[in-house]
Each structure stands twice: as C-alpha cells, then as structure tokens.
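Please go through this chain and its backbone structure tokens and walk me through the local backbone shapes. Keep your notes short.
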Amino acid sequence: MKAKKYLLLFLLIAIVWSCKKDDDNPEPPFETEVLLSATEVEEASADLNAVKALFVLLSNTVAGAPDLSNNVVAGIKVYYIEYVSAYTDGSPITLSGLVCIPNDVNLKSMAISFQNGTIVKHSSAPSENLNNTELMLLRAFAGLGYVVIIPDYIGFGANESFDHPYHYKSLFQYTVRDMLLAVQEMAQTGDYPFQLSGELFLTGYSLGGWASLVSHYDLETDPISELTLIGSACGAGAYNLLDMKQHLFGQTDYIQPFYVPYIINSYQSVDAIQDDLSLFFSEPYASRIPGLFNGLNSSGQINDELTSNMQELFSQRILSEFDTHDDYKPLREALAGNSQAAWKNVIPLSLYHGNADENVPYFISENLYNDFVNLGQGVDKVQFITLEGADHGTGVMPMYIDVIEKLLDAN
C-alpha cells in the first residue's frame, strides 16, 4: 500500500514539475517581419446569409451571372492591414490593403490576390471604397471559401503621401509580394481565424491585369516559400507600353486622356525620367498637369483639364521624334522596361480582353498571346479568352464571373 502511495506521489510531483517547466519556458510568440497591424473592418464583414444574398442580387442584376449562393460556405471577416514594403531606393514604406477571410477556422483556403484597376482619388482605394460594387463582390468571394487579398497600392491607403507609381513594374511586384507575406504571417500567428492551404491565384483587370501579369512573372521566377502560385487571370492590361504609346499617338478622340500624364507623372516621381513636361505635352496642358494628380481630383475632373485629341495633347516633338531623338531615350527605356514580354511560363495563365475595348485596345492582349504561342506555349500554359462585345468597362464583371466559376469547378 505504502509503495503505491509513494508511486502516486512521485507521479504527481513529476507532473507538477513538468508543468512548471513549461510555464517557465513558454513557447515564444510568433514575430512578424512584414505585417504591422490587422484590424477587422466591421462594416465590411458579413454573415453567411448576407453573403448569399449578395450573390443572389448579382445573378438578378448582371446578365449571364450565375447564382453562386449555394456555393457559399461561410460568412466573411474583412481586415484592414498595414505592412512593410520597399521603395525604389530600398527604404521601407508602409502599405495597406484588405484581407477577406471565410469565417470558418476549420477551412484551409486558397489565397486569391486581386489587383484593382486604375484609380486616381485617395477615396477610391480598396480600403477606403467599401461600398464599391466590384469590390463588394470580390470581398464576397471569401464566403466561397477563399482568402481574398486586395492591395491598396503605393500612393493610396496608408501611403497617400507618395505619388502613385502608375505602371512601374518593380514597385507593383514588391507591393503584391509583401502583402502576400503579410497575410502568410497573419495565418502563422494563430491570432486570426483562418488557415491557408498554400495555394495562390492572381487576378486583376486593366491596371490590375498588368499588375497580375508582372507579379505572376515575379512569383514564378522567385517563389514565396510555402505559397504555391497555381495560375493567373489577367484582364485588359496595357502589357506592352510601347505598343500602347503608338496607339495613343494616332488617336483624335481618346476617352481617357488622363492615362498619359499619369504615367509621365509616375516615371518622374521615381526618377525614371527627369525632363520638363513641355518635352512631352503641348500648351496649355503642360502647365495644367502639375497638381492634377493630388488624390482629390477624379479621372473625369482631370480629363476635363486635358483634351481627347492626342495630336493636341502631345507636343509636336514627341509625335515626330519619339523613336529617334536622345531626349526621349529615358522614356523609351522606361516604357520598354515596365512592359511584360511573353516568356516560357511554367504556371498557367489566362488573358481576357473585350473586343470592343477602346481604352486599352484588344490587339495588346492578342499580340501578347501570339508571342507566347510563338515561344511554343500551348493551351495548357496560356489561354486567350475574348469577351465578345465588351468594352473596357463592361468586360470587368464577365471576366471575374468566369474566373470564379472556373476556380469553383477546379475544386
């Protein structure tokens, strides 16, 4: 009997001592390197029924949209995050964006990174524009079981003091990559109710299409550990900026003239070009452009200060000497360097474009697709989907609907 008592006492002491050792040496907390903060956005989060209702509304209001309400598996939580990225000189900058998760900690979710199109107003940033219909739909995709990631970009959200580096490749690649790392860190801390499956998909339209393509190239060339890119869908992007320039030179009634000074302003802000605006634009426009991209003016307000006739907006020198004069060499190099050429991709991608698009012409995507084909890439690596009859605005929703249906079918 005494032997049994001593044995029980010994076991009790051993258990207490082992617990004490664990308390004295707790598991160290996970330390993030990129993520700065994550705060739930209550007004953007929604329960399961609200997400279902949004998909029902979509199917009733958008021609051809399927009813995805039966595919909803959870409500959603939306987080505003801030994270560290880098500027052109390598100095750290704080960026922001939205992370939308299915409200079910037991799900292991694929990450979908959505890159938004061209914006100029600070209030149009994804984290500021919560009532935007397109962004509401993208957030709702989290209810289908995905972790949806939407960067704000440099110049927006937490980074309004910087000029937006419109179509400056490396900064977009940093922005997307570092936000993915921040979301990975969110999952690894265990402080947020979601798990990542380790799979990643990229998609975006217009500027977002170009941003997705250059990020696809970056992440395929230099993968993120434990996050496998499985594919991309890129819509109506200006992938070849020199071809886009050539198209613009011939336009006399271009609907979005603000694109042109926006890219010049961008390249000046990162010191890719350092010339006076009079080298590129005629008067009175060269004098009007400074200050137009202040984050307060809409694209329409900026367009009102310009002209839709590109023969009048551009200087006569650039129209006649762009290809030959050394004064334009920095701009030629900037446009070439920030284009994305075809390559022998291993991870599949899809190109979408409306054949009635007058903002970014259809041939931009068509030429890029043909370049991939000429490299020997088959349909298992690159597909080109024509959005029949769609212009730049009406192509957005059909593309995203097609993308999400294909992702759901694949799972």
Summary: The beta strands are 35-40, 76-86, 92-102, 108-115, 147-151, 195-205, 228-235, 349-354, 382-387. The two ends are 62 Å apart (CA to CA).
